[in-house]
Amino acid sequence: MNILTFDSSEQLNEAGANIISGLVQTNPRAVLGLATGGTPVGIYSHLVGDYRRGLVSFRQVTTFNLDEYVGLPASHPESYSSYMQRHLFGHLDIPADRTYIPDGNAPDLEAECRRYEQLIDTAGQLDLQLLGLGHNGHIGFNEPSHALLRGTHVVTLAEETRKANARFFPTLQDVPQQAITMGVGTILQAKMIVLVVRGADKADIVHRALTGPIATECPASLLQTHPHLVVLLDKAAGSRLA
Ligand code: GLP
């Protein structure tokens, strides 16, 4: 694993965007796994800058998002579909039909999970999976558990995850109870994983995920098994690492 710690959030954003732009420059048909949450916003805005400066085109790229809430209309401002439009897709030349996000409003959620997994299979291996990290060690919405599921599945969100995400909603009650998420197996199959973490409040979980035992109680710890893991941290998030 390659851990890079940055003095400023701007440097971290630039480094994250450079990895993605560099990949797309060398492989214009790259298949990207994308994340949401507060963490990647600065990286996405840097990528939009790269595109506007003519450094990179996303016309042939295919993307798969990690997860989506169950039961939020796609047009809801906090659906991950709206988030991706707002922060990335709406500003790039990527065709809408190459951007995939699980449908959290599908009438049959289990069938939707199978469909999504099949789409990823058909696209081939993800060339890169971008990840944030939950305070409890979740990646995507794979919550700590005595067992983790390999493929895309429906998950009931941990209370601490709903509380952490309540900042994006009017009240805690408005945060959905469930989500669809790629499984840890799907994530680990990506050729390269870029884990991005910011903030002192995540220093403990960064330490546990990267140096603690590999255990399903800390889903991010499974990333230690990946042959090509790059970790981008700000100083605060990396403060507990030697
Ligand atoms: C969210 C998302 C994850 C994200 C994580 C951290 O709930 N499902 O993909 O990485 O939790 O979020 P944030 O970046 O806002 O701290």
Uncertain stretches of 5 or more adjacent residues? none
Q: What structural class results from the helix and strand content?
A: alpha/beta
Tally the helices: what do you get?
A: 7
Q: What's the rounded overall pLDDT mean? A: 97
Terminal-residue CA separation: 15 Å
- Taken together, the total number of domains comes to 1
How many DSSP E strands? Answer: 10
Overall CATH class: Alpha Beta
What is the second-level CATH architecture? 3-Layer(aba) Sandwich
List the strand order in the largest sheet: 1-10-9-6-2-3-5
List bound small molecules.
Answer: 2-amino-2-deoxy-6-O-phosphono-alpha-D-glucopyranose
Rg over CA atoms, rounded to whole Å, is 17 Å
Please explain how this structure is put together.
The chain is of the alpha/beta class. It has one domain: Rossmann fold (3-Layer(aba) Sandwich), CATH 3.40.50.1360. Helices cover about 30% and strands about 15% of the residues. It has a seven-stranded parallel sheet with strand order 1-10-9-6-2-3-5, sandwiched between helices. Strand 2 (about 30-35), helix 2 (about 40-50) and strand 3 form a beta-alpha-beta unit. The longest helix is centred in the N-terminal third of the chain and has 18 residues, at about 10-25. The mean pLDDT is about 95.
